[in-house]
User: Which sequence fits this backbone?
């Protein structure tokens, strides 16, 4: 009789089941009606309880994301965040434009990105506008109070960039924009990594993402809850809308603040939205040489750098702009791995090797633990010249504690993808500087001229839990070259001090 069940009316064969079905339907309908009533009553209550325009503004936005009926809209909404969902707002001034635009040209791709440079007044076109974001002139802010004796009133103009950008977007753009990303004219973004960071967050919610200053005193004077503007920060669309509604009133309440980013933070505090800290945004409130910071980057995507006119060029014997351009070669090969540190040992020679992929390698005599190598060496100076090493917001270490431990530094001199080996090959050349005499009985790393690093591109590095890559010194007979492999740590592979 099993055949019967399959072909003809299964329903009529199981009358008792049918009855159960009717009960079930009845039960479901009643539950549904009760719930609907409840929703109607609570949503009405919400309207009576409206606290501010902001909350109202949020509602339709949220509904659209959760119950959008058009399949197309849903598909667009679930599409992973990419560069076409971002609008950049670049804070600039006509006075420095000629010089600073060179930094923007390094990272901005007009065909792939959207954004505007906000200036105080028109500048003469030098014929290079095709490589730059279009220029907009900020609205008049002379009616806003500004009472900070040290700062400049341009801060007000710059703090309004998000609101002004939002106001200028046409309706098509409004639908596709998820994030507003702010930066200065001397901020350089690694946009692939910016996207990797933004993808972690729901653009339909209110997010204010950025990072602090390296200087403890700066954070005390400004705020430990503020995204420093030069490092760049991101504001999600709903938050930009909420901000733009209150900003002009909000700015009036804080005439004594110094800059544009503290004004933004003051308004964020009014909205109750805290800073979501992402360590890859770099304000770089330091002087001197960034080397220590770039050679020991935290295990997080490298998103931005700033104050490039203040610090020394990141590669020696090169202009500032050229030295940043040089980083774009490894950036194109493996942006996720750019400036990521890995630590390993040459156990035969008793050396410690620290790789900052795409930038530099340090070779030390003797063994340093990973917890020491992870700390940036103090090649840079505090933003407050009188402040010493106790005034950073992270641990640092001296460049060397012993003359023998002065690192041998190798700067990236070239990088390419080797199709046959199916891996990137980057080369690092020794920076020739005098080294103090050392009487340790140990091979002198000064004999090495070149280091070659093999590393497979790993675009999904940041889709996994954060973990430092492992490196391995490959043993060869050549005396003046070191070969190193960098990649995901194998099962059970640990950086053990040798
Ligand atoms: C700096 O660069 C110039 C020109 O490229 C070169 O002649 C000079 O030797 C370099 N100096 C050092 C210390 O590398
Ligand atoms: C190259 O390596 C990647 C992984 O890094 C792998 O997915 C790909 O199949 C490899 N290609 C060849 C030709 O071996
Ligand atoms: C490497 O150094 C050792 C000892 O210093 C020497 O005997 C050997 O010939 C060198 N090898 C090469 C390839 O230069």
Assistant:
């Amino acid at each position: 009789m099993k055949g019967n069940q399959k072909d003809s009316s299964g329903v009529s064969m199981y009358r008792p089941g049918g009855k159960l079905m009717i009960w079930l339907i009845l039960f479901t309908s009643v539950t549904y009606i009760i719930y609907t009533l409840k929703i109607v009553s609570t949503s009405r209550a919400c309207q009576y309880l409206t606290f501010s325009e902001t909350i109202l503004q949020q509602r339709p936005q949220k509904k659209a994301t959760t119950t959008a009926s058009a399949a197309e809209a849903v598909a667009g909404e679930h599409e992973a965040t990419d560069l076409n969902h971002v609008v950049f707002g670049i804070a600039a001034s006509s006075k420095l434009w000629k010089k600073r635009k060179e930094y923007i040209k390094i990272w901005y791709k007009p065909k792939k990105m959207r954004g505007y440079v906000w200036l105080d007044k028109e500048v003469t076109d030098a014929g290079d506008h095709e490589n730059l974001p279009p220029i907009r002139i900020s609205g008049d802010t002379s009616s806003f109070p500004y009472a900070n004796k040290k700062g400049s009133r341009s801060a007000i103009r710059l703090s309004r960039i998000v609101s002004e950008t939002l106001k200028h977007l046409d309706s098509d753009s409004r639908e596709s924009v998820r994030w507003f990303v702010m930066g200065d004219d001397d901020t350089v973004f690694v946009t692939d990594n910016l996207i990797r960071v933004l993808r972690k967050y729901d653009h339909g919610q209110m997010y204010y993402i950025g990072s602090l200053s390296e200087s403890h005193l700066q954070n005390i004077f400004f705020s430990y809850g503020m995204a420093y503007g030069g490092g760049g920060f991101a504001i999600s669309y709903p938050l930009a809308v909420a901000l733009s509604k209150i900003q002009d009133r909000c700015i009036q309440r804080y005439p004594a603040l110094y800059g544009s980013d503290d004004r933004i933070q003051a308004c964020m505090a009014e909205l109750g939205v805290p800073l979501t800290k992402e360590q890859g945004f770099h304000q770089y409130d330091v002087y001197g040489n960034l080397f220590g910071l770039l050679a020991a980057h935290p295990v997080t995507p490298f998103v931005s750098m700033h104050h490039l006119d203040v610090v020394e060029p990141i590669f020696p014997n090169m202009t500032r702009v050229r030295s940043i351009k040089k980083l774009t070669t490894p950036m194109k090969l493996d942006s996720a791995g750019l400036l990521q540190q890995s630590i390993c040992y040459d156990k035969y020679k008793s050396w410690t090797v620290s790789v900052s992929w795409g930038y530099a390698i340090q070779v030390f005599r003797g063994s340093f633990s990973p917890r020491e190598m992870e700390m940036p060496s103090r090649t840079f100076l505090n933003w407050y010249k009188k402040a010493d090493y106790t005034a950073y917001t992270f641990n640092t270490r001296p460049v060397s504690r012993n003359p023998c431990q002065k690192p041998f530094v190798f700067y990236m001199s070239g990088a390419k993808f080797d199709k046959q080996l199916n891996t990137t090959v980057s080369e690092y050349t020794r920076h020739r500087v005098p080294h103090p005499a050392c009487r340790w009985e140990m091979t002198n790393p000064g004999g090495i001229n070149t280091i070659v690093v093999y590393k497979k591109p790993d675009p999904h590095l940041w889709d996994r839990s954060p973990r430092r890559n492992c490196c391995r010194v490959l043993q060869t007979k050549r005396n003046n070259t070191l070969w190193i492999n960098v990649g995901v740590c194998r099962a059970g592979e640990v950086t053990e001090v040798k």
